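PT: before anyone asks, these are the final sequences, not the draft ones from last week. 614 residues across everything. Please model them as a single complex and drop the result in this thread when it's through.
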Amino acid sequence: MKTRYTYGGDEHIYVEVDDEMSLDAFFKSLSMSNAVRNANIKGVTEICPANASFQVRYDPDVIAPEEMMKKVQELEDKAEDAEKRLKTRIIEIPVYYQDPWTHETLMRFRERHQDPSGTDLDYAARINGFDTAEAFIEAHHSQPWFVSMVGFVAGLPFLYQLVEREKQLQVPKYLRPRTDTPKLTVGYGGCFSCVYSVRGAGGYQMFGVTPMPIFDPDQKQSYLSDFMVFFKPGDIVKWKPIDRAEYDRILAEVEADTYVPRIAEVDFDLEAFNADMPGTNAKLMEALNVV
Amino acid sequence: MSFKVIQPGLSTSIQDLGRPGYFHLGIPIGGAMDRFALRVANMLVGNPEGAAGLEVVFMGPQLVFEQDALIAVTGADLPAKIDGVTQEGWAAFEIKAGQTLSFDFLKSGARAYIAISGGIDTPPALESRSTYPIGALGGIEGRNVQAGDVIPVGETDMIEPGLSVPENLRRMPGRPAELRVLPGLYWHRLTAAAQEGFFRDDWTVALEADRMGYRFKGGKPLEFVEREQPFGAGADPSNIVDGCYSYGSIQVPGGLEPIVLHRDAVSGGGYFTLGAIISADMDLIGQLQPHTPVKFRKVDMAEALKARAARKKMLAAVRAHLG
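LR: through. Structure below.
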């Protein structure tokens, strides 16, 4: 890992902690961006943490760019020593894989895809060495995921699977982005899963859909009463495969504003995870059983 | 006080100076694309500079006022008419209760700003009235203006009409439009030839040009420095591990067509960015029509800050002029 500092125009400083994805890079980015926030530097207007990088927006009329750069660089050592431990939560997100709506959409944009003859899931399964789409789906939901970034559009989470690098699923993005993606599509690009918080353009492969809203400016759902965006970096997600009947049942609850997702408070310790991934994951998922 | 929308125009939205503070959640700052024009329009009618007005794209709306008000239209040359009588741009004029504000065809520029004394008074969302349709925030029910909307305006003591801004204190892009770029971010991903070619080539504004971003075409494809793609980035050489995007940053998916992210930017993604348009030139982009020829000019940080200071000075000159 070699940290790279650069400017984004005259109003942003961009820090790439590593050019490849890892939880170590995520934790260092998060610690550094937290350190910048805690330093209360005059002139800073926004701090955006990402997967393995972060960005600081500042007002160059208040603080000179070189001065701002120096202050951010000085915080690197401090972040290095920070504990790689989080008090967080695990959330069970129901997913209706191979649903009719993403299927209709992926058929409409087939000419923009690497494999126009199949579906996104068939393609993802094949290039990751699985015999069937069902086996790939199993790999997608059997181990939990870590929210390593929130962004793109309103409240969209990027998720990184908590497994060894050899077991990471990797899928390219569409050759050319689609102009449409159904709301709440569970997507995949690079090594990241995502949930499209709103309907719109997108380049990630489409695997399924969740009935659970994760962004609502009207904040109708009880779990969105504090803020209109559900996810934050550090959240842990367990996908739960559901069928059409369960999808419809949950959707009815969502429409009645009575749906309550299963959420449990957990601790995540990167060192403990690195030492024993299956054991750590089993414990994380067990926490959901007592909800 | 309010006014009624008879015709909405092509894409008319309520905008102020935006909602900073939520970009880390994917909610962009938004607000007027040409902030200078909105500020000046507000000054002309005696509003605070950040009051909400209408951002009009290419084609003007038709509005009927239920009470007397002061109006100013700045930005693009889109001549305003009151009951058919043409009014000066960049100047304050009075509209009487029952009169209709309409517009002639666009002569130059892309976005006009309509300020109304008292300012538009729709309910703010996350401290701003700016419309962000993707997230259904601000504006009227989170959307652009539609026929039949009745838009509330704040109460105010009207100042005298007649203020105007002379031409030397207005700002519009030249032709070709020059956009200054500070190289940075993932600039190192391009070969030396591509770095040079980007600034040497002639570009034009593509049809995909909106509040989220402006696309450009016509230049040669950009070549990348060869490397083994980092884990998690994706196979295309223009891919990176998804990171944050700066406002004004220039991404070039596949090395083909540069896209400059603007006020309604997506907050992050998986494409490399070669640098960013300097803050002083962001307003100009909002005035570019499709097919406009564009040159990107390379600057360093010192020049970027000098240009920023010049913009501040110009705004101060307008304030001084209008007293």
